[in-house]
Amino acid sequence: ISIEIPDKAGALAEITVLLAKYNLSIKNMNIVHNREAEFGALTVEFYSREDMLKAVEVLQQDAFTTYLKKN
Q1: Residue 35 CA: distances (Å) to CA of 12, 17, 32, 54, 64
Q2: What DSSP element (H or E) covers 5?
Q3: 3-class secondary-structure state, position 3
Q4: SS3 12
Q5: How far apart are CA 54 and CA 20, in angstroms?
Q6: pLDDT in the model for residue 37
Q7: Are the beta carbons of 9 and 69 closer than 8 angstroms?
Q8: Which of 19, 44, 65, 71 is most enclosed, with most CB atoms within 10 A?
Q9: Alpha-carbon distance 7 to 30, whole Å?
Q10: pLDDT tens digits, residue range 4-57?
Q11: How many CB atoms lie within 10 A of CB 39?
């Protein structure tokens, strides 16, 4: 999934703590930041499709904009 991540201290921690609260383990992640934008794009991979869909649900409930990547 891709998540819009604000350019502020603690933003990545907020996301990872939220995922950990639901026992969702991250397999891999990458951050791309455009210096002209207020947001970066955090790409996160999970170990299962079920975990990925649960992550989208909990992140959206917490007001994070998320996008499912098409495979």
Answers
A1: 17, 25, 10, 30, 20
A2: strand 2-6
A3: strand
A4: helix
A5: 12
A6: 65
A7: no
A8: 44
A9: 15
A10: 998 889 999 999 999 999 999 999 999 987 766 677 899 999 999 999 999 999
A11: 15
Do 44 and 26 meet the contact criterion of CB atoms below 8 Å apart?
Answer: yes
In the chain, the amino acid numbered 10 is G
Residue 71 CA to its chain's centroid (Å): 17
How far apart, in Å, do the first and last CA atoms of the chain sit? Answer: 11
Neighbours of 69 (CB within 10 A): 10
Q: Which tokens hold the place of 24? A: 């969702």
Supply the DSSP string of 18-66, one letter for each residue. HHHHTT--EEEEEEEE-TTSSEEEEEEEESSHHHHHHHHHHHHHTT--E
Structure tokens of 28?
A: 């891999």
